[in-house]
Q: What sequence folds into this?
């Protein structure tokens, strides 16, 4: 097997009238956690189903380790995936669920007990999976993904339903998988879940990758040229700055983000119009900002945004 | 193929449902056969009838649990979404489907053997108390053997037909409705039709009435089809359903 990478090239997939994937292309590299983020319905799950050969694409190729998934023998030794943690038979125990999966790959029952311990499910392993909390099902799904000790791990919304302890565990766990040299792809519709975990981000919207870059690069690109302003006279300040040609967004009860004007010019303008303010600083974007900026046009269903005044 | 079979067998034995369904099949087959045997009596002018067929009449009821198992083996996974896990573990779809079919065949055939032999034994014991011991009432051994193996094969084929239908339909409730309708409604429809030509046609074509001709050991001339040809019709139904299910599993998105 060549390098443990997922390479997607120009994936297009139509379900009836819906274009689910519209030229999705990106690469998931070994040794890093790649966050796969985008609004619901942007094509994250469809992409993962295509990688696993569950759905066929109309155009494009999806290769794992240089081969299409459906050509792999004992595929769980190449790719471990968690798509839907609820996809279980409720009256089968967690251990037995892993057992049939292990047997399907020619693995021994010993391996099942190893992964159960690895995800911290030992005490519940012999209980029926139907009684598991969503967090426990996620752990069971992760155990299933790890069965074949695969060099590629792909998890769809693994943070869903996890309690805070579970989220912290999951972050450390994903980082350790990448540190072992595995290629790790983790999807989420919440940027905050992946911001401390991912090294690389693929942001998707309307069926294609709209950003594919390192986390730090993305933050720097979005932050450039923005100024954060703290003032109690918000509407007045916004009117003055918008009149001078800036794009102004109220980001809190007394905070405004200004773009299109340098900080010294903003101070001069506010002083001239006698607008009180307490702080002017270079704005450092959070991943959340990056995400909102990138997906602004890609969100299909969106509530009204905070007040935005453009000249 | 062997790992896929091992996986499917493990799935079947690690939940209670399949075991109960097979027990239900055995109980229903033997109970109905015994009940039927215990209500017939020999008339003064000879016993007549077909005691072997009578002893195996429970198959008519026992086929329902076999059909339900055949459906649940695959549509249960579509219902829960577990089919995705199955097909990521065994991405070669025909192999995954064949593993299900082979495992189901083994399980249903084993339980059907117990059910059919149990019915035959119960029938013999009860009928002998009713005077069916005379030589004219005892068919040739070869005919009894045909009825016995034919009934076991019939139950197995019904399981496979159900698996094929469920692979096409995917939904458990709909699949069970389709298969039970096919089994029980078609013969009822045949009874309702006045025209004897069409009635015979329907009996030759319906999977149950055609297949169960294999149980006949007397009066073979009155059958709509010869016994093995009748079972062949059921086998044709099962084969068609499996091919359709296999093709769709291969080509459809999971």
A:
């Amino acid at each position: 097997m060549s390098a443990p990478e997922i390479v997607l090239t120009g994936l297009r997939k139509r379900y009836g009238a819906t274009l689910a994937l519209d030229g999705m292309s990106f690469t998931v590299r070994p040794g890093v956690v790649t966050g796969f983020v985008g609004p619901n319905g942007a094509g994250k799950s469809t992409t993962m189903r295509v990688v696993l050969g569950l759905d066929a694409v109309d155009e494009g190729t999806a290769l794992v380790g240089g081969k299409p998934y459906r050509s792999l023998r004992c595929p769980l030794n190449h790719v471990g995936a968690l798509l839907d943690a609820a996809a279980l038979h409720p009256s089968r125990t967690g251990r037995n669920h892993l057992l049939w999966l292990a047997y399907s790959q020619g693995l021994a029952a010993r391996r099942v007990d190893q992964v159960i311990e690895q995800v911290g499910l030992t005490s519940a392993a012999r209980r029926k999976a139907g009684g598991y909390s969503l967090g426990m099902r996620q752990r069971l799904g992760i155990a299933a993904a790890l069965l074949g000790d695969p060099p590629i791990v792909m998890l769809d919304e693994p943070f869903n339903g996890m309690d805070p302890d579970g989220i912290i565990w999951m972050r450390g766990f994903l980082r350790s998988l990448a540190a072992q040299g595995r290629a790790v792809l983790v999807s989420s519709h919440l940027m905050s879940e992946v911001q401390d975990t991912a090294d690389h981000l693929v942001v998707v919207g309307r069926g294609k990758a709209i950003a594919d870059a390192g986390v730090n690069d993305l933050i720097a690109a979005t932050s450039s040229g923005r100024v954060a302003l703290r003032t109690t006279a918000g509407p007045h300040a916004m009117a003055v700055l918008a009149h001078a040609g800036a794009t102004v967004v109220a980001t809190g009860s007394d905070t405004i983000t200004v773009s299109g004007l340098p900080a010294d010019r903003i101070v001069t303008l506010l002083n001239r119009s006698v607008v009180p303010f307490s702080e002017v600083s270079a704005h450092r974007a959070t991943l959340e900002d990056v995400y909102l900026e990138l997906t602004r046009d890609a969100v299909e269903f969106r509530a009204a945004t905070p007040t935005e005044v453009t000249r | 193929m062997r790992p896929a079979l091992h996986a499917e067998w493990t799935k079947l034995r690690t939940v209670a449902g399949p075991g109960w369904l097979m027990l239900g099949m055995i109980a229903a087959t033997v109970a109905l056969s015994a009940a039927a045997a215990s209500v017939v009596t020999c008339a003064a002018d000879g016993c007549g009838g077909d005691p072997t067929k009578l002893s195996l009449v429970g198959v008519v009821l026992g086929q329902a649990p076999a059909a339900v198992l055949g459906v649940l083996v695959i549509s249960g996974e579509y219902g829960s979404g577990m089919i995705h896990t199955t097909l990521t573990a065994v991405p070669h779809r025909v192999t995954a489907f064949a593993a299900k079919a082979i495992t189901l065949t083994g399980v249903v055939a084993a339980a059907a053997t117990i059910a059919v032999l149990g019915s035959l034994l119960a029938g013999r014991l009860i009928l002998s108390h009713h005077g069916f011991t005379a030589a004219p009432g005892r068919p040739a051994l070869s005919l009894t053997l045909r009825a016995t193996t034919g009934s076991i094969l019939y139950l197995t084929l019904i399981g496979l037909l159900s698996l094929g239908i469920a692979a096409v339909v995917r939904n458990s409730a709909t699949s069970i409705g389709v298969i039970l309708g096919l089994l029980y409604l078609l013969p009822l429809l045949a009874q309702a039709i006045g025209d004897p030509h069409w009635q015979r046609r329907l009996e030759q074509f319906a999977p149950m009435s055609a297949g169960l001709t294999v149980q006949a050991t007397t009066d073979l001339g009155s059958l709509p089809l010869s016994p093995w040809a009748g079972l062949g019709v059921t086998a044709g139904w099962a084969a068609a359903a499996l091919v359709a299910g296999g093709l769709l599993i291969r080509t459809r998105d999971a």
Q: What stands out?
A: Chain B touches chain A at residues 3-4, 6-8, 10-11, 14-17, 76, 80-82, 84-92, 253-254 (CB under 8 Å). Chain B is about 80% helix and 0% strand. The first helix of chain B runs from residue 2 to 13. Chain B has one domain: 2-251.
